[in-house]
Structures are given as C-alpha cells and as structure tokens.
C-alpha cells in the first residue's frame, strides 16, 4: 500500500520535481520531417507544434542538395523543424545532401524523426525504400529508436471501395503498410527490438481528426512522438504543447483560451516564417485550414505521459515510487502548471 504523504512531504517533492524539470528540460527541440513531396509533411508538423512553422502547399520551392530549416520559439523553447526536400524525389546529390544535414544538425542528431508515407499510395515505392536505406546507412539503426512513421491521408482509406466492411478494409490497409515497412527495415538489417518499437500512426486532415480506430489522430501522433523522445526532449515537447493538451476530465476550453490558441498562430519576430504565403495557389484547398487548437488526451494517454515523467523523476532522486494513481495525477498536473508559469 502506498505511503501516505504529509503536506510537507508533498511540498518537498514538488520543489524537487520543479528543480528536476527545469534542469532536465532542453531549451531546444529539433524535429526532422521527411518523406516525398506532396505527402503532407509540412501540414503534419504544423499541426503537431501548433504553428505554421513549415511552409505548406505549392508556395514551397524545392532545394536539391540542402536541408531546409524552419525556426520558431514556443513557451520558451526554440523549435527547429528540418525538412528534407529532394531526398525521396531523386533530385538531390546524396553525398552533398547528408554533408549539409550533418553540418547543420547539432552533432548530427535530432530529437524525433517523423517519416511520412501516404497511405493512399498504391504501393511502397522504391523512392521511399532507397531513402530509408540511405538514412539508416548514414545515421545507423539507432535512428529508428527515436522515429515515428506517419501514414498520411489515412482518411482516404476509411471506405471500402467494394461497399463492404469499411473498418476491416481500413485495418487491412494499415496492416499491409505496417508489414511492408517493417519487413523492409528487417531486410536492411534494423534489429528486431528496434523495429518492434517503431510506432506506425495513421494520420488524416485537420477537418476530420477521428479515424476508424482512434478518436483523434493528432493526439495519437503526439503521444507516440513523446514516447520515442528522450525524457529531456520529451519535457521540451510537453512545454511547447502544454496549453493545447486537454485531459479527459478537463472542462471545455473557455473563450479566452480559444482566443489565445488562435493567436498562437503568430510568433513574435518570426511572422515572415510561419504565416502562410498570401500568394499561395487558390487550388491548394487545404492551405487555409485551421490548425487544431487542442490535443485531447484520453485517460490512458494521460496516464502514460505522467507515469513516464514520474518514473524518470523517481529514478533521478529516489522519490517515493509507489504513489497512488490519484496523487500521481493531481501532483504532477499541479507541478507542471507551476513549471509553465515560470517558464
């Protein structure tokens, strides 16, 4: 049975927890988003961070031998999104490309890689296979320990074209894509333990966040990215998302909260980077979609988030490990709100 903590114990723990978070959390978050042109990479990462950091649609210009970076600051954390135009499209000089990537990335590392493949594609094309092989050769199998595979345009696979079982059709498509990707990683020598830990997450569009097997694909993507990050980068990821995260027992967002979320689409001093190009093609129907203001976590997702933080904190300072579930939720939420206030 969990030890009952006095108020003094709780305050001591809170002080220690706040100190640990402030010392452990990174001040910079580096995200690599990669995949062929037209698979929704920029839209996906913008939804994830809550701002139009990366340029979307046809306003983008292709760079063949360089990695493009987009930078902004959210809640005191510098966010850098690295885009990889040309790698999967066969338009880059790979040697120059990866020299450029390694010189720009701090020590050749990033906190999470999101590899995007369109679930609407007819098959797993050689362009993606070659890019995955090259990335693995350059960065090693460890690359995949901090990676998520996003199956974009999953909303286009929710109806059986034969008019039969829609759910069975969708799950079948997801299974086939997952099998194809993991089988290929096995063929190029990625270890079983690493392959087993790679999340494969179907994602859709902003207007329809519900998919057949999940209530909100953005929430699923967010928690999967958090889980593959180190705890220090995960705390930074939490910091930039805290105002958007909504829990199962949270009240509906107030008008002021919603207004604040909308205003977050503009980043002080970086408007030229994150605002949409006013000259974007009128044919780009998704260009003016509103980035989702909230990332609702269900109880299972919230519990996983809080337990991972508490476990890392307990291992660091030897705090009481067998705390009750209700205390864990109350204490961690309250402490994290304080962290936000002083960020």
UniProtKB/TrEMBL annotation:
| One CC-aspect GO term | membrane
Q: How does it sit in the membrane?
A: Single-pass membrane protein
Query: Is Lyase there in the keyword field?
Result: no
Q: Supply the InterPro entries for this chain.
A: G_AIG1, GIMA/IAN/Toc, P-loop_NTPase
Entry keyword set: Chloroplast, GTP-binding, Hydrolase, Magnesium, Membrane, Metal-binding, Nucleotide-binding, Plastid, Plastid outer membrane, Protein transport, Transmembrane, Transmembrane helix, Transport
Compartment list: Membrane; Plastid, Chloroplast outer membrane
The cofactors required by this protein are: Mg(2+)
What GO biological process term is on the record, naming one? protein transport
Q: Which residues form the AIG1-type G domain?
A: 26-246
Protein name, entry field: Translocase of chloroplast 34
* Organism listed in the record: Stylophora pistillata (Smooth cauliflower coral)
């Amino acid at each position: 049975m969990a030890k009952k903590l006095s108020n003094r114990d709780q305050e001591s723990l809170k002080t220690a927890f706040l100190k640990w978070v402030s010392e452990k959390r990174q001040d910079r978050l580096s995200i690599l988003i990669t995949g062929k042109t037209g698979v929704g990479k920029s839209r996906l990462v913008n939804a994830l961070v809550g701002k139009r950091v990366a340029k979307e649609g046809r306003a983008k210009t292709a760079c063949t031998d360089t990695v493009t970076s987009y930078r902004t600051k959210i809640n005191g954390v510098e966010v850098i999104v690295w885009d990889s135009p040309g790698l999967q499209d066969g338009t880059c000089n790979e040697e120059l490309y990866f020299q450029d990537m390694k010189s720009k990335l701090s020590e050749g590392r990033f906190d999470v890689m999101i590899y995007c493949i369109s679930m609407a594609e007819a098959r797993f094309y050689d362009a993606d296979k070659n890019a995955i092989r090259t990335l693995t050769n350059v960065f090693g199998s460890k690359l995949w320990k901090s990676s998520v595979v996003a199956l974009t345009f999953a909303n286009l696979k929710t109806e059986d074209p034969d008019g039969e079982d829609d759910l069975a059709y969708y799950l079948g498509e997801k299974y086939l894509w997952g099998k194809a990707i993991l089988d290929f990683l096995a063929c190029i020598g990625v270890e079983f333990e690493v392959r087993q830990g790679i999340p494969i997450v179907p994602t859709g569009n902003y207007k329809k966040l519900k998919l057949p097997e999940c209530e909100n694909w953005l929430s699923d993507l967010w928690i999967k990215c958090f889980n593959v990050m180190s705890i220090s980068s995960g705390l930074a990821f939490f910091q930039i998302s805290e105002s958007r995260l909504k829990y199962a027992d949270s009240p509906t967002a107030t008008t002021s909260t919603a207004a604040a979320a909308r205003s977050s689409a503009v980043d002080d001093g970086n408007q030229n980077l994150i605002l949409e190009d006013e000259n974007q093609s009128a044919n780009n129907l998704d260009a003016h979609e509103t980035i989702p203001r909230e990332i609702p976590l269900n109880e299972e997702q919230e519990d996983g988030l809080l337990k991972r933080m508490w476990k890392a904190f307990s291992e660091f300072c030897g705090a009481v490990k067998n705390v009750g579930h209700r205390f864990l939720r109350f204490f961690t939420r309250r402490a994290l709100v304080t962290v936000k206030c002083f960020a």
